[in-house]
Amino acid sequence: MKRFKFSLQTLHDLREQEREDAERALAQAASEVASAAAKIEELRGAINQAVAAYAAHLQTKEFQPHEAQMHTEYLVTLDSQLTAARLHHDECEHRRETRLQELIKASAAAEATAKLREQYYARYVAELAREEQSLMDELATIATVRRMRGTS
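The structure assignment produced for this chain is given below.
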């Protein structure tokens, strides 16, 4: 009997490739989320450090309005960077969620063709067993006929 050949193998291979691509895209998006979160933490640390440095400066020196304005402007700049970093993080999170949904769809499609392949293979094996049984029955019939001719 001929070898098993899944007629939708090309489609299955394409769906498997799409699933792998979706996994890579999700990993990239997760990496971007982690990078954005690290940037937020870095900015929070910079803000805390700037506030602590300014507080220490005020304790050791006289109050200078010009220096106070510079520190305030620096903190405002850091705060605006933090806001931008949070927005970027949210965008990255949204992209990651989108990639996750794409992976779920691609995995479901690949799983569907894999199950279909299993069903086709089970039918192939059953048909092979039927043909084998048919040949065995035919051989048994031939042997019986020969024995009957030999005894008569």
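Interim note for the steering committee: DSSP finds two helices and no strands in the chain. The chain has one domain: 10-151.
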